[in-house]
């Protein structure tokens, strides 16, 4: 693998929107696109990208609209699910991929790839959903109340320093289950990157959830082979909302609930997560 294949790249779309992304693997290989969740970045996939490349795939991961080092408009009215989806779709088009793609999406990224499969089924070979966010009702009641309408004042979020985000990440990483406090599930470098991603993201991204489209009724139209993986201790999205997908998605080939993981099983236990992904891909 050439060294420059693993370095972050930048692309500029026709509307001058910057996209930061990374690509690993021979460009001639089968394409896999990885899409992160809200307030995250392409670094979500640091453990999976090299495994995909070494297994003969072309793996690409991007910073979504408003995240990481991609375009961040100053006007927070521009932050909607459709804007994020359009930004993602334009970037995919800019890659000039001629083969059908395998799409991997976590949380908000799961909602994006489900929408992409609905709009462009001919371009999708398979889906890998990781704790997917597909319905506002998956959020806890307080978060549903918070995201019920546009956040008009995001100055407090904008001014929050890294160290406060880090405290939040450390506290939320400490798993409380059955009344017992357990050690952090996320290693130090993951907690560092997670807090950094929170601090780098535009405050406007928190307006995205209230614009999430209702995908549930359209799900039966998605017939591509699908792998579903989730953490049973997710405190961000209702864990029972994930097995429900097995009832409405017609072609879930395999599903796995990781019992000692929360919202980010791909980062919590990559040594368990990555083999599940590779087994699914091998059997396609």
Q: Which features characterize this protein?
A:
20% strand, alpha/beta, Rossmann fold, disordered N terminus, 10 strands, 8-stranded mixed β-sheet
Word description of this protein:
- By secondary structure, the protein is an alpha/beta fold.
- The chain has a single domain, classed as Alpha/Beta hydrolase fold, catalytic domain (Rossmann fold).
- The protein has 10 helices and 10 strands.
- The strands form 2 sheets. The chain has an 8-stranded mixed β-sheet with strand order 1-2-4-3-5-6-9-10, sandwiched between helices. It has a two-stranded antiparallel ribbon with strand order 7-8.
- α6 packs across α7.
- It is globular and about 45 Å long.
- The two termini are 25 Å apart.
- The N terminus is likely disordered.
Summarize the structure.
The protein contains ten helices and ten strands. It is an alpha/beta fold. Strand 7 (174-177) and strand 8 (180-184) form a beta hairpin.
SSE blueprint:
Blueprint: E1 9-12, E2 18-24, E3 30-35, H1 49-54, E4 57-62, H2 81-94, E5 101-106, H3 108-119, E6 124-130, H4 141-146, H5 155-158, H6 162-173, E7 174-177, E8 180-184, H7 188-200, E9 226-231, H8 245-248, E10 252-258, H9 265-268, H10 270-283
Mean pLDDT: 87
Reported CATH architecture? 3-Layer(aba) Sandwich
- The low-pLDDT segments are 1-5, 176-180
CATH class bucket: Alpha Beta
Major sheet: order of its strands?
1-2-4-3-5-6-9-10
CATH topology: Rossmann fold
Q: What is the CA-based Rg, rounded?
A: 18 Å
Count of helical regions: 10
Ends distance: 25 Å
Q: How many domains comprise the coordinates?
A: 1
């Amino acid at each position: 693998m050439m060294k420059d294949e693993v370095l972050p790249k930048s692309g500029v779309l026709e509307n001058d929107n910057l996209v930061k992304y990374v690509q690993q693997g021979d460009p001639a290989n089968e394409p896999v696109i990885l899409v992160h969740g809200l307030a995250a970045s392409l670094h979500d996939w640091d453990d999976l990208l090299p495994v995909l490349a070494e297994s003969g795939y072309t793996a690409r991961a991007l910073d979504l609209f408003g995240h990481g080092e991609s375009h961040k408009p100053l006007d927070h009215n521009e932050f909607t699910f459709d804007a994020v989806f359009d930004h993602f779709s334009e970037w995919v088009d800019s890659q000039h991929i001629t083969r059908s793609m395998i799409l991997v999406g976590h949380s908000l990224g799961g909602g994006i790839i489900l929408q992409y499969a609905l709009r462009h089924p001919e371009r999708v070979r398979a889906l890998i959903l990781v704790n997917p966010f597909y319905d506002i009702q998956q959020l806890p009641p307080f978060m549903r109340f918070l995201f019920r309408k546009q956040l008009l004042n995001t100055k407090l979020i904008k001014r929050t320093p890294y160290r406060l985000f880090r405290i939040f990440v450390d506290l939320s990483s400490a798993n409380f289950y059955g009344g017992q406090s357990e050690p952090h599930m996320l290693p130090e470098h993951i907690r560092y990157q997670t807090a950094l991603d929170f601090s780098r993201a535009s405050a406007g991204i928190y307006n995205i959830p209230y614009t999430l489209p209702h995908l549930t009724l359209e799900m039966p139209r998605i017939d591509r082979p699908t792998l579903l993986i989730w953490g049973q201790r997710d405190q961000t999205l209702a864990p029972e909302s994930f097995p429900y997908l097995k009832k409405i998605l017609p072609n879930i080939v395999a599903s796995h609930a990781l019992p000692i993981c929360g919202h980010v099983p791909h980062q919590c236990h990559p040594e368990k997560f990555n083999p599940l992904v590779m087994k699914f891909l091998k059997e396609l």
